[in-house]
Amino acid sequence: EKTGKVLGEFCRCYKEQYGVSLFNSVRYEIEGNGGPQAQLLHRKLPLENHVIYSGNIFQYIEENKKWRNRFCVVPHNYGLVLYENKLAYERELPPRVLVNSAGYKILTSVDQYLELVNNSLPGVIPKSGHAPILKCPTDFPLILWHPYARHYYFCVMTGKEQEKWRAVFQDCVRHCNNGISEDSRVEAPAFTDAVRMYRQSKEQYGTWDMLCGNETQVLSNLVMEELLPELRSTIGPRLKGKTPERQRTWIQISDAVYRMVYEQTNAQYAAAMAGCEQERPQLESTIRTDMDQIITSKEHLASKIRAFVLPKAEVCVRNHVQPYISSILEALMTPTSQGFAEVREVFFKEVTDMNMNVINEGGLEKLPEYMAKLSHLAFHPVKMQSCYEKMDQLKLEGLQQRFDVSSTSVFKQRAQIHMRQQMDDAVYTFETLLHQELGKLQGKDDLCKSIQRILERVLKKFDYDSSTVRKKFFREALLQITIPFLLKKLAPTCKGELAKFQELIFEDFASFILVENTYEEVVLQSVMKDIMQAVKEAAVQRKHNLYRDSMVMHNSDPNLHLLGEGIPIDWGEEYPGQPEPEPAADRRRRAKQVVSVIQDDEGSLPYEMGTEALPQPGSPEPREPQGPGAPPSSPDGVKEIREALAQESLGGGVEEEEEQLTNAPASPRPRADGPPQAEVSHVTPASPAPGAESPSPASGTACHQPSDQETGEDVTPPGSPPQPTGTTESGEGVQTEF
């Protein structure tokens, strides 16, 4: 009922915003209003056929309350894919867990987690002496916490591993949070504007932390934001048992409800999208035919609203916004510019080190090996971490309360995404220019000089593009902070009077001109001049290496952008001295890896024997033999696990890789011997998402590649008979998170 109500109101907003967004897109296409041309090239498919990371990690299995060693793979879509072990991955068996980490927070302390869990059920306070909801067998936990969905518990053996896994997990969250494609000039703006309009209709202004993930995830969060407090007040008092048990039950209830909401939201939003797409040709035809009349009508409406709103808005800006713009800008500029400076430094260091290594180790013969590593520098979570960490300094403090900014995480993640993009643009431009020069080089000295010369050219381009990107980011962030504040301030005196302007819009153009949107544009204009001036002054003063707007970098490489349109460079296969090219099918299975495995998975672990046979999914886990001379059974309690880990650390059973990360390719994956059957959890399953498939007997030998948006817990393909729902000893099954 709640989902239907929220989605009904949202879809009405979306349909209105769709027409406005379509008009703006067509107008932009006709008039053109692009900013400065970027100097760096942009790679179209940066991670095709690559795996970001894979390695072993301990996971806590809630169903049987045991810690298990899992093999975790992070594919190009940044999902977390957990297999029984590496052998299961190589045999292409279905994964145990698939996690889309949008909306999750990465915690490295059990105390942090317990505080969030205690706050999730007001009035339920754990008594001293009672066992908490979670105990970790090591001092290095990694917990994925979500306000609505289920939580995931991991741990590792050392602080060094914890830092690396944390960087990998944070990269996954950062990427999955940015789930709404920016390539769409119609659907994406219509969706985000509709979300904003819906929340403002509920008197909720300002940034929203849960605007993360794909469209269905965002809408599910929108529903849960209203539904969860009602559920908590209804169900919370009825929960039985000790505090940890009640907390555990509440997490399971919240997750089950979230899955139900997701399925219903997905269906209703898809129907709304289909309706808008069906009307699009007619709307677009009207826009192109009557473009001039629509613009004239909109400007007439804007002039009337401006005469009514602008005097009040200017007073509000002068008294409540203008005095704080420079403070907000300075708070944004310092960490952001430090982050981009660190990107430049990391790029310079990596290219310089590569240059030295290539010259010292064999010149052109070694170049493809090092360039293959450099080409994915932007997607190396550990090497990029020093850049991302600079944004942790962002604090608005008193300004945050004044302007009703719930959290700075929105701005941090946006800046970090810009950093990664700028790094990849710089690397791609460097390798494109170097590739062009290779045919002219005579020896090591020529190669060294060319690399240095190209590096200097790319750094100049990076400085220019970095300045452009940062100035745009500062303007957008200032608008995101100040506009909701102004709208909230002006609402009591202005919003009620807007209805009278509706009569100024011709009925034929009502799909493309909205009074509410025009009102917001007028409010934006009232503060935009002050924001532009503040950013311009920062550039004139050369603060943080920002260029003035009047400074235009002439294109010293007129054909560079044509080079960027060519076939992507494959350094590993293009030059002599490299292995023979693999067939396309084999190359897809043998996915290259950006970051190497942290620890050697061949070292046997104390409570998951390296010699034990791989159990077939769907069958009970074999019991370890007991008796004299038999291997010890898997410890269940934290005490036993601690003792086992202590013995393991003394015995040196876990081999650590060398500290420096390398881009070693993932090992080849042999075909499975037989068709795998997915094991089903005894928890309440959710229906599969549209398009989600599981390996069938006919395709059992195909490489299992998780899709970009896997959202169902049950992986049975449509039309196939349902699988049994009996429990196994582990009680564990394929679980796909949103």
UniProtKB/TrEMBL annotation:
Q: Which residues form the PH domain?
A: 50-174
Q: Output compositional bias ranges, type Low complexity.
A: 684-702, 725-738
Q: Which Pfam families match?
A: Niban2, PH_Niban2
What InterPro entries does its record include?
Niban-like, Niban_1/2/3_dom, PH_domain
The region called Disordered is annotated at 571-738
Q: Which protein family is it in? A: Belongs to the Niban family.
Tell me the protein's name. NIBL1 protein
What organism is recorded for this protein? Answer: Scytalopus superciliaris
Q: What's the encoding gene here?
A: Fam129b
